[in-house]
Amino acid sequence: MTALIQGATGDWEMVIGLEVHAQVTSAAKLFSGAANAFGGEPNTRVSLVDAAMPGMLPVINGYCIEQAVRTGLALKAKINLTSVFDRKNYFYPDLPQGYQISQFTQPIVGTGEVVLDMEDGTERRVGITRLHLEQDAGKSLHDQAPKLTYVDLNRSGVALMEIVSEPDIRSPEEAAAYLTKLRSILRYLGTCDGNMEEGSMRADVNVSVRRPGGALGTRCEIKNVNSIRFVQQAIVVEAARQVALIEDGGKVVQETRLFDPEAGVTRVMRSKEESHDYRYFPDPDLLPLELDADWVASIKAGLPELPDEKRARFMDGYGLSPYDASVLVAERETAEFFETVAQGRDGKVAANWVMGELFGLLNRQGRAMADSPVGPVELGGLIDLIADGTLSNRLAKEVFEEMAASGKPAAAVVEEKGLRQITDSGAIEAEVDKVIAAGPDQVAQFKAGNEKVLGWFVGRVMQATGGKANPAAVNEILRKKLSE
Ligand code: ADP
Ligand code: MG
């Protein structure tokens, strides 16, 4: 789906490419043994390497390499058996080395692909240009003293995977779908926690505009956007700014900008640096990284089932719609919960309960799947009681609420509250007779061909039975008696 912008001079198309920095989930940093955890007292997780003491030597963390390879494989990407670490030279107070160790001409992972599941059930493909490993910088603290800036090096040297997309994205919704899918893949793998609030996943958003299908326009890069919602907002305002600028006779200048969510604008940060400004050269402290093809193959064999494959299996095996399947596989915990519920039961019914009542409950209570008050085995038990006729759907919803409140299994709630559905046709017939006797006008209407009036009878019977009569049985008996 392409979202066109209607300008004063005609339509414009947005072109978007994303660079995502994903922090590798690992105990130690990329080139040192210092701890990688988020937060902590400033400068307590800093080794001599991270502080760039003279004569320090970086030592590559094999675990981080493995995570980058796993991520590359999950992105269906080419793994480069030889890759090179380069120095990207620039001065910044939170970068004591005076350069960042990154990968430039020979990244560890080459071209790949992410499949987007759009809300309407369609798919879109976004190319991955590359994934490379690099060190994070430290952090300048401007709010600790009125006239001083402090530097915290805890983050210095933390391993990042920079995942660069092709300029294949055409709307804010697609950008959101891309980030959601990428995060889902990273979480399935456990290679990055995908936590945008804590900054372990951040996006640089490249935006340009062009006439639909025309040549690519000049892009601006919006740095370090830290939520999916802000990415969408930043794209909208930046694309609108560029259209207005061009239609006004101006030209987009390639530059780095910042998004200010409060003001709802992007502001120029600096003119775009070119790669030659960084004087990249291979880091003489690090040998080229050589990977063994068999090792890569064994990592590939050990990958977990990923969202796309799981989604296909859910559609095939449980008869789910593309949309339902993609919702259920988005998080691994949700997928596992669903599969436990669906085990040996009707998959569509299980999906409806998980996505309907259960998601609703978790939403209301602000809880994650992991601390759902109703577990998957218990929800399965409830569905069994619908299948065997003990409960109608309506009663089951009541039982579900009670299960959530009391933590008791479905069968216990049914017994205690007497919520069992009345399927005994004698009992229902007696109620039907009473309702028919009490509504001669309605009977006449029904006989005159007014089908809708049947609802009135059903409502009365349900009322009289406290909602416990089996609705199918009520309908059947009513029809039979009314046509006698
Ligand atoms: P740099 O390293 O200077 O940021 P890259 O060539 O690596 O430049 O591209 C960075 C990002 O910009 C990529 O995600 C790419 O898809 C995106 N991009 C390139 N050209 C355009 C364009 N004309 N409009 C939007 N995005 C673009
Ligand atoms: Mg860039």
Could you describe the 3D structure shown?
The protein is an alpha+beta fold and 484 residues long. The protein has helices at residues 62-74, 172-189, 228-247, 293-301, 307-318, 322-329, 332-342, 347-365, 376-387, 393-406, 410-417, 425-438, 440-447, 453-464, 471-482, and strands at residues 4-7, 10-23, 82-83, 86-89, 99-102, 112-117, 123-135, 139-141, 150-152, 159-165, 201-210, 220-225, 255-260, 265-271, 281-282, 289-290. The strands form four sheets. Strands 1, 2, 6, 7, 10, 11, 12, 13 and 14 form a nine-stranded mixed β-sheet that branches. Helix 12 (425-438) packs across helix 15 and helix 14 packs across helix 15. The longest helix has 20 residues, at 228-247. The radius of gyration is 30 Å and the shape is elongated. The model has no long low-confidence stretch (mean pLDDT 93). The structure holds adenosine-5'-diphosphate (ADP) and magnesium ion.
Q: N- to C-terminal separation? A: 57 Å
Poorly predicted tracts of residues: none
Helix run count: 15
Portion of residues in helices? 25-40%
Number of strands: 16
| Beta-strand residue fraction | 15-25%
Shape: elongated
